[in-house]
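Renewal narrative, Specific Aim 1. Our central claim is that a sequence can be written position by position from structural information alone. The example that follows is taken directly from our test logs and has not been curated for this report. It begins with the structure tokens describing the chain, in the order in which they were read.
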């Protein structure tokens, strides 16, 4: 149960920074370009933010996560098949946490039971330990 006795998740209102930009209407088609172009050449500029999402099925995916977080990207990791193996899950989480928090001074935030948010050192969650 959420804090304050709430049973439903807390929703965060997100608004467009440019009010004149067209927004999606309910029922409008959505195209996930990440599935069509998983490695699209996205130009990087100073101050940009890339939020990557992935599903971790085994230990082999950890190196890619480390590359992304080292590049300054935020990463949302869903624990996939790896969650079924306690030993492998613990090894993965410990390895990720040591790298993010100790090596690059970033932050690892747990999002529910199956997800982690990896923040590079240029971001903070605002959550106190």
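The sequence written for that structure reads:
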């Amino acid at each position: 149960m959420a804090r304050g006795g709430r049973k439903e998740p807390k929703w965060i209102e997100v608004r467009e920074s440019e009010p004149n930009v067209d927004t999606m209407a309910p029922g409008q088609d959505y195209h996930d370009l990440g599935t069509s172009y998983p490695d699209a050449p996205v130009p990087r500029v100073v101050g940009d933010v890339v939020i990557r999402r992935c599903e971790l099925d085994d230990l082999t995916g950890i190196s890619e996560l480390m590359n992304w977080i080292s590049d300054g990207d935020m990463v949302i990791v869903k624990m996939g098949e790896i969650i079924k193996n306690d030993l492998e899950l613990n090894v993965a989480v410990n390895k990720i946490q040591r790298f993010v928090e100790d090596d690059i001074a970033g932050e690892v935030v747990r999002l529910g039971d199956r997800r982690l948010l990896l923040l590079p050192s240029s971001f903070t969650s605002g959550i106190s330990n």
